[in-house]
Amino acid sequence: MIKRTLKQISEMIPVQNDLTLFLEVNITGVSIDSRKIEKGNLFIPFKGEHADGHKYVVESIRKGAAAALWQKDVPNPPNDLPILIVEDCLTALQELARKYREQLPVRVVGITGSNGKTTTKDMTSCLLALQYKVQKTEGNFNNHIGLPLTVLGLNEDTEVAVLEMGMSGRGEIEWLTKLACPDAVVITNIGESHLLDLGSREGIAEAKLEIMQGLKEGGLAVLHGDEPLLMERINQYKGNIQVQTFGRSETNTIYPTEIIQSNQGSKFKINLSAQSFELPVLGTHNILNALAAMSIANYFSVPFEKMADGLKNVKLTNMRMELVEGKRGEKIINDAYNASPTSMIAAIELVSNLMGYEKKILVLGDMLELGPQEKQYHLQIGEGLNPEKIDVLFTYGQLGLEIANGARKSLGTDKVFAFTEKQELVNELVNHIDNKTLVLVKASRGMKLEEIVASLQK
pLDDT above 70 covers what percent of the chain? Predict the structure, then answer.
């Protein structure tokens, strides 16, 4: 993490007050949460609509913070403490991260996409860590605040940083990538997330491709080659870059030649190596995420033989195709972290093809931020269910009712249960499960369907 004197900090960002008495004060790391202050931190207070972090500056320094920023328009800064007065605290945080990034010799991998960003980030960092000292974005620190905090958390001896870049609208990925200056980038796919903000999949593709604007000259772009919206646009790109693709099609740079799915995970082979690979993760879509990660690792000269060992031990962030057991012995695929039509179809496909279960049950909730056609997307999910492979459907939420409406056409009314109360859903669900049942739980993050998983495990 960043370690600098206040004199050095004042040379990295504009400071408006006299720091003569505190120039040799050393800061170690930054924090925006006064409850999580660690000794030596630079505390960065934000002014929000409902709270003002400046109220906690003095307390943070008493807790061990070495210094704090102070926004110019906030009155009464304590003049006897190591305070750095700046025009705007958020801008100062971002500029500090930008300057720190410029001072680091670290190589950076930037990852974005509609689905699979975090999974691909986890896999990429796992493979690169076989050969390098690696740090990655933790949790969902992938926006205009989280990414600067991640950069400032990088150690000076870190060799590769794997940074996730999220967005809600146009221009956000461009801003993030220009701060990170990646040596290589990945676009996992183009789905339907953010249709509410961007209006079309074309708009989403253009927003994700903003990541190219920070890519270093001659750097590598790894793209989902089966996505026409990406390939049409990358073929028109004028910059001096390398392009590699991954996907199911044999037209890609890297593609699977064999896939075997089981309850324990996936086995696969690829066109670029005779090596067999194992993933302790469910789903063909996660094999594609692994291919993207392998492309990056190969670019960084990690041998495929090493990658085979790394993929066996990959650990993903929770609630992403996580296989757990309920108290009745049922197996539960907890994929409650997020959902879009693309990722929901992929999860249903996985459940449909897994063998060894007498009954397969889907618990599906609302997919959010899909724009004006949200009801149609949900209806189509239900209509597309195969009655020979899915036994029962439970839905949760107002948009979940549309999934149920569609499923009554495909599964029949007696196999579809729709709820707007979680406990009522759980009370009915437990009547349908035993130790030979597989349950998929999936919805957008805001629906908090992990609460249903927890109820089944109690």
Answer: 98
Report pLDDT for 456.
95
**Each residue of 254-300: pLDDT tens digit?**
999 999 988 778 899 999 999 999 998 888 889 999 999 999 999 99
How many angstroms separate the Cα of 272 from the Cα of each of 130, 243, 275, 409, 445?
19, 16, 9, 44, 36
Sign of dihedral through CA atoms 402, 372, 233, 94? Answer: negative
Q: Supply the pLDDT for residue 337.
A: 85
Q: What is the pLDDT of residue 167?
A: 80
d(CA 194, CA 371): 8
Residues in the chain with pLDDT values less than 70: 192-199, 317-319
φ and ψ of 134, to 5 deg = -120, 140
Torsion (CA) 306, 298, 172, 99 in degrees, nearest 10: 90
107-112/160-164 β-pairing = parallel
State the pLDDT at residue 193: 64
Long-range contacts from 371-377, C-beta under 8 angstroms, 24+ separation: 371/195, 371/196, 371/199, 373/195, 374/196, 374/399, 375/399, 375/402, 377/192, 377/341
Strand segments (E) across 227-272: 242-246, 256-262, 265-270
Q: Tell me what pLDDT residue 37 has.
A: 94
> Which two tokens mark 437?
């049942």
pLDDT at 195 (0 to 100): 58
pLDDT for the residue numbered 319: 64
pLDDT in tens, 139-148: 778 899 999 9
Which H/E stretch holds residue 426? helix 422-429
Q: What φ, ψ does residue 363 adopt, rounded to 5°?
A: -120, 105
Domains of the chain as residue ranges with CATH? 3-88 (3.40.1390.10), 104-312 (3.40.1190.10), 322-457 (3.90.190.20)
Angle at alpha carbon of residue 373, lines to 372 and 375, rounded to 5°: 110
Beta bridge partners of 185: 110, 221
Place of tokens 């993903």: 316
Give pLDDT, residue 355.
87
Q: Scanning the structure block, which residue is given the tokens 């949460």?
A: 33
Instruction: Evaluate whether 407 touches 378 at the Cβ level (below 8 Å).
Output: no
350 dihedral zone (left: phi>0; alpha: psi -120 to 50; beta):
alpha
- The answer to whether 409 and 416 are in contact (CB under 8 A) is no
Angle of the 374-383 helix axis to the 400-410 helix axis, nearest 10:
30
Cβ neighbours for 225, distance < 8 A, ≥ 6 positions apart: 231, 245, 246, 247, 249, 251, 252, 253
